[in-house]
Amino acid sequence: MKIAVVGTGYVGLVTGTCFAETGKDIVCVDTNKEKIEALKKGIIPIYEPGLEDMVHRNMKSGRLSFTTSLESCLDEVEAVFCAVGTPPDEDGSADLRYMLEVARTIGRNLNKYVLVVIKSTVPVGTSEKVRKAIQEELDKRGVDITFDIASNPEFLKEGNAINDFMNPDRVVVGVDSERAQTIMTKLYKPFMLNNFRVIFMDIPSSEMTKYAANSMLATRISFMNEIANLCERVGADINMVRSGIGSDTRIGRKFLYAGIGYGGSCFPKDVKALIKTGEQNGYQMQVLEAVENVNEKQKGLLFDKLSSIFDGHLEGKTIAIWGLSFKPETDDMREAPALVLIDKLLDAGCNVRVYDPIAMEECERKIGDSVYYASDLYDAADGANALMLLTEWKEFRSPVWNKVADKMKQKVVLDGRNIYDRKEMEESGFIYRCIGY
Fold it and tell me: What is the mean pLDDT of the chain?
């Protein structure tokens, strides 16, 4: 079975590589010639644990190849997965130009049946727009060729994407034909031989499921951050509160951690897009508007705490930052709280020293040489008046605090992820601030 995957970003590359791992013949397509040439040489454009080895293994076996031409492989494939970017427009709606261009390319070159699978996160109704764009091109050619559309949103967590794809807790698929359902069943059967967890539904429901899932998780994060901020004011401990409510089986413990807000490529974009979908359909998504507002405020919370410690006198202070990516096990800094905090610190006249195990190059690409890029966590702390923990990488969990203290000018730690013990930090002589207690 041969499949084309259009788009070699995070979703497309993981999707294509994991399908190849199960014996499928995969050709990954991208219009970026430099990226394709790099991939042909085995150079991976993203950081994801386990992905590089899997790409190399499947390229060597001949099951995974790369091209810039969708036209050249359309006659050979049974399905085309569209995993192109759908970035937010200025108004928050999803930009579908790349998706629709893929559709038009298919319509101009299609000579036999193919199943077109929308893998990108797209608003409800996008699959019908893709269907219409393909059909319009077929009509222009005066040909009658059957094709189907399916919606198959991704639920990959950055840093754990390979395991999520190879061992999914569920796969959501929207179809409107038996033929499409048969193909999708054949594709996903190898991943769940003992427990087939593909949930088939209509296409609009599948499209909505992705946005609803991410928006629910974002809501839990912002809710806990609201509760954490109130806990500080009333003398409660957010960690105790989390334990108390998380033990309720109706609520559960996941995504109940207070912190400095969510970032990444999914939650911010998808919340905005769902708010916009509501507007376009005459409905105000009041809960999600609040979720977004809370999250934006939360990203600046550590700066406010820092300013309070130093009575607003931050000019000339040296601030160390541990962690730049929006979460561990990725170099992704899209919508990362670190970017907001670095901007605020620089605007206040601070000298900023940063360290991240993976995201240093990405940070330099985004903000240039406006900060000092440290060689390790201790170098970052050298001469610092305060230290901010922004990403809970494993190597930050148990630093040698005596060594950190010797490096720092003042012993001030602001923990944006609540990974340290307040009592231990204070007994070690640190001024310690965290989120929610």
Answer: 95
Look at residues 282, 297, 312 and tell me which one is the last residue of a structural domain. Answer: 297
DSSP string, 195-234: S--EEEE-HHHHHHHHHHHHHHHHHHHHHHHHHHHHHHHH
pLDDT of 324-377, one tens digit each? 999 999 999 999 999 999 999 999 999 999 999 999 999 999 999 999 999 999
CA distances (Å), origin 354, targets 120, 196, 220, 341, 371: 33, 45, 29, 12, 7
Does 266 qualify as catalytic in the annotation?
Answer: yes
Same domain, 184 and 35: yes
Domain ranges, residue 90: 2-201
Question: Catalytic: which of 18, 82, 266, 363?
Answer: 266
